[in-house]
Amino acid sequence: VTALALVPVGDSTRVVSTRVVSTRVVSAHLDGLIRVWNIGLKDVPREYRWHRSRAVRALAVDERDGHPVVVSAGDDGAIYVWDPLTEWDEDLMSAARLAEHEGGVWAIAVAKAEGRKAIISAGQDRTIRVWDSADGTPVGGPFNGHDKVVRALTVTGTGDREVTVVSGGDDMVVQAWDLTAVAAAAEAFAGHKQPIRSLLFTRIGGHDRLVSGGGDGAVRRWDAETGALMGKPMEVHERAVTALAFAEVDGRECIISGGTDTTVQVHDAASGEPVGVSKKHPRGVTALLAIRPPG
């Protein structure tokens, strides 16, 4: 599994109601297969092959006409937008194809800029590109601040900026961009000693924080407004940190991380102290999803 997404689905009318009655988990795989699972049911998952047999590297959830849609991207360089409740049909591929990069797309995010919804993508061509989510037309750009492959993206709404895109990759630098300015780099956060493999924007202790995971096994916390490093790097993994999530565990704000060392680690977001016992997988962890229980 290379990526996960959680899709809330409204009632069966899907016209005027926004009541969530079920949830789908979407999983992406190296063989190009995407599966959609209905949580709580033992149904066989739906399978989609938008990216043929090329690895699917990234998933995101967007909305069209009040309904959730999935955005997927991968090594074929293509970005597809599709309805997770519709059966896959090869004849739909052309209509679902939104845009493409020169080279594989390894990270995607969704945001709203200047009143319109946008999809942000990045990958092997070292660029961050912004697309109108409705028709795939480019929105300004591209951003050209990285010297090597871009592996991670997240979106914030911090400080004086309406929307900020944060990116990281093999050049070991976290870049922050003002999405409304499109081509102007805001600042670079330096500190990683290996390529950046994962990014997370969240609130810790009532403040906006950026969390980054690197190939050196360290998790770093940054002030999202100033770019200042918060505390010492959390040396939590023996190998690359490839997935990050945020959750409350027994009333404590926690950062959850997964890595190529096959472990999932949970640490107090403020102090960096470990919480509980690490979990081990048979192989490297590439995706994490924290689900808040009902109530």
The unreliable regions are 11-21
Question: Tally of extended strands?
Answer: 23
- What is the C-alpha radius of gyration, as a whole number of Å? 18 Å
Overall, the morphology is globular
Q: What is the end-to-end distance?
A: 29 Å
SSE order in H/E notation?
EEEEEEEHEEEEEEEEEEEEEEEE
Mean pLDDT: 83
Please describe the biggest sheet, giving its number of strands, its sense, and whether it closes into a barrel: 4 strands, antiparallel
Number of helices: 1
Biggest sheet strand line-up: 1-2-3-4
Tell me the strand percentage band. Answer: over 45%
Structural class: mainly beta
Helical proportion? under 10%
Q: What is the oligomeric state here?
A: single chain
Quick summary:
With 295 residues, the protein is mostly beta strands. Helices cover 1% and strands 50% of the residues.
Commentary on this structure:
- It is a single chain.
- This protein is mostly beta strands and 295 residues long.
- Helix content is 1%, strand content 50%.
- It has 1 helix and 23 strands.
- It has one helix at residues 93-96; strands at residues 3-10, 20-28, 34-38, 46-48, 56-64, 67-74, 78-82, 97-100, 105-113, 116-123, 128-132, 150-156, 164-169, 173-178, 185-190, 196-204, 207-214, 218-223, 234-235, 241-249, 252-259, 263-268, 279-280.
- The strands form 6 sheets. A 4-stranded antiparallel beta sheet has the order 1-2-3-4, with no helix packed on it.
- The longest helix has 4 residues, at 93-96.
- The radius of gyration is 18 Å and the shape is globular.
- The two termini are 29 Å apart.
